[in-house]
Prior knowledge:
This protein has one domain (3-129): Nuclear Transport Factor 2, Chain: A (Roll). The chain is built from four helices and seven strands. It has helices at residues 3-19, 23-27, 47-60, 120-129, and strands at 30-37, 43-45, 65-68, 72-75, 79-89, 95-107, 110-118.
Amino acid sequence: MTGQEEMLKLAQVHLEAELRMDLDGVLATLVPDPVYVLWDGRRVEGMDAVRSYYTRMFERVFPRLVSVDASGLWVGEASVVAEGPVTMRDPGGGTATYTQVSVIPFRDGLIEGERVYPSLDFARLLDDAFQGWPGE
């Protein structure tokens, strides 16, 4: 398998763990010192902070998740870019579909973190979920 194929496979393993809300599975795909850059510019640095980030996501965002289409994948020399629609349940019981792009850099065969770029309306939903969270 080439380095690009290995990155793509690990990115898919990471996404599948996210969709199962498998915190240990997600963290197992990361370097020991991951860095996430969120939609509002906040940086989530280190394994403990990333664990807290995913705990918040799994409690407040993922239960509303209906579907993710990550079929838009591009592989570069040291990163994978994932783009696609994310469908969420809204508080009124309907659904809404948003777009998100994630840049997933790699280092030493593991995911170094993510840079998360949601559409503006999806960013508002995420902002609500992260009110009062450290770093705000």
